[in-house]
What we know:
Shape: globular
Strand order of the largest sheet: 2-1-3-4
Oligomer: single chain
Radius of gyration: 14 Å
Number of domains: 1
Strand content: 15-25%
Amino acid sequence: MKYMTDxxxxxxxxxxRDDGIDCRTVHEWIDxxxxxxxxxxxxxxxxxxxxxxxxxxxxxxxxKDYDSWKQVGADELPVIYVNEVxxxxxxxxxxx
Length: 96
């Protein structure tokens, strides 16, 4: 499996790579560069992920952005919404 982090989660991409996971930032995937050279819009991320899926190469988006999560999920693309994962973890720890 391959993963893409949004702009707010760039440090996670490096941590996952250090753990042996194929994870790159949105800029690495879409622009081919590590540094932010421009703002990548949500529609560009969706188009990129759809193109990858159509090529048989699924990339999972990891995001903290609610709108991105909803849009990518609506396209039935794999996405991890960090806020929901953390919320579920906290609720489980609290026994709820």
